C-alpha cells in the first residue's frame, strides 16, 4: 500500500508540474509582455524570457497534461503541440545561422531589446523537452532510456544555470550558448524535466498501447 501511495504521489507531482509550466508561461506572456511587468520576465537586465520561450512552455505544459490523460484524441493533440515546439526551436536556431540579428523573437518583433532572444541553449532544451513529450506517448519507443537521459541532462543543466545566475546574474554573459537565458527559463526547464522523470510508468504510451491490444 505504501509503495502504491508513493507512485500516486509521484504521478500527481508530474501532472502538477506540467500545469505549473503552462501557467508560468501564461503569466510571462500576459503579465510580463502585455502588462510590461519586467520582474515577471527575469531577474537581470538583458536576461528576459522572450514570448517564444513562454509560448513553448505553455505548449509543453499543456501537452504533457494531455498525454497524462491517456486519451487517444488528446494524445494526438499533444503530438501536434510537440511539433509546434520543435518548429519554434528549429526556426530560432536557424536565425542564428542565416540572420542578423539572431533570435526568432527579434526577427518577428524588431523593436524588442538587443538581448531579447531565445538562446541556443534554450532552443536545444526545447527540442529535448519535445522529445520527452513524444517519448511518454509513443506506443513503441525504440529507446525508452533516451527520455531518462534527456530529462536528467535537462534538469541538471537548468539547475546549473539557476545556481550560476543567483551567484552572479551576469555570469553567463560571456557564454554565447547561454547568453540571454532568463533564470525563469532555467527554472521551468528544471520543473518540466522533473515532471518527465516523475511521469507514471503505467501511463506511458507503450504500456497503455499494450493494455488496449
Termini distance? Answer: 28 Å
Strand content of the residues, in percent? under 5%
- Give the fraction of residues assigned to helices: 55-70%
Helix vs. strand class:
mainly alpha
The Rg value, from CA coordinates, equals 17 Å
User: What is the element string, with H for helices and E for strands?
Assistant: HHHHHHHH
Low-confidence stretches: none
- Number of domain modules: 1
Q: How many distinct helices?
A: 8
* Shape field: globular
Mean pLDDT: 83
The biggest beta sheet, please? none
Number of strands: 0
Provide key terms for this protein.
8 helices; mainly alpha; globular; 213 residues; transmembrane; transmembrane helix; membrane
Describe the protein's architecture and organization.
- This protein is mainly α.
- It has one domain.
- Helices cover 69% and strands 0% of the residues.
- It is built from 8 helices and no strands.
- Helix 1 packs antiparallel against helix 2, helix 2 packs parallel to helix 7 and helix 5 runs antiparallel to helix 6.
- The mean pLDDT is 83.
Describe the structure concisely.
The chain has 213 residues and is mainly alpha-helical. The protein has helices at 2-34, 51-68, 72-98, 104-108, 120-137, 144-167, 183-197, 205-212. The two termini are 28 Å apart.
What secondary-structure arrangement, pairings included, does this model have?
Blueprint: H1 2-34, H2 51-68, H3 72-98, H4 104-108, H5 120-137, H6 144-167, H7 183-197, H8 205-212
Amino acid at each position: 500500500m505504501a509503495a502504491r501511495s508513493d507512485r500516486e504521489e509521484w504521478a500527481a507531482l508530474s501532472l502538477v508540474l506540467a500545469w505549473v509550466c503552462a501557467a508560468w508561461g501564461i503569466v510571462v506572456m500576459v503579465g510580463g509582455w502585455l502588462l510590461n511587468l519586467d520582474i515577471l520576465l527575469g531577474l537581470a537586465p538583458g536576461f528576459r524570457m522572450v514570448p517564444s520561450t513562454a509560448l513553448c512552455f505553455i505548449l509543453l505544459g499543456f501537452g504533457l497534461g494531455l498525454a497524462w490523460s491517456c486519451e487517444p484524441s488528446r494524445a494526438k493533440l499533444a503530438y501536434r503541440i510537440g511539433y509546434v515546439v520543435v518548429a519554434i526551436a528549429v526556426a530560432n536556431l536557424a536565425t542564428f545561422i542565416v540572420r542578423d540579428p539572431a533570435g526568432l523573437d527579434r526577427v518577428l518583433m524588431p523593436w524588442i531589446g538587443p538581448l531579447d532572444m531565445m538562446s541556443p541553449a534554450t532552443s536545444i532544451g526545447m527540442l529535448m523537452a519535445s522529445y520527452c513529450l513524444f517519448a511518454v506517448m509513443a506506443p513503441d519507443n525504440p529507446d525508452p532510456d533516451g527520455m531518462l537521459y534527456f530529462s536528467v541532462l535537462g534538469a541538471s543543466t537548468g539547475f546549473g544555470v539557476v545556481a550560476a545566475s543567483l551567484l552572479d546574474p551576469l555570469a553567463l554573459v560571456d557564454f554565447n550558448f547561454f547568453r540571454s537565458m532568463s533564470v525563469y527559463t532555467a527554472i521551468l526547464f528544471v520543473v518540466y524535466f522533473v515532471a518527465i522523470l516523475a511521469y507514471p510508468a503505467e501511463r506511458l504510451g507503450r504500456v497503455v498501447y499494450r493494455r488496449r491490444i
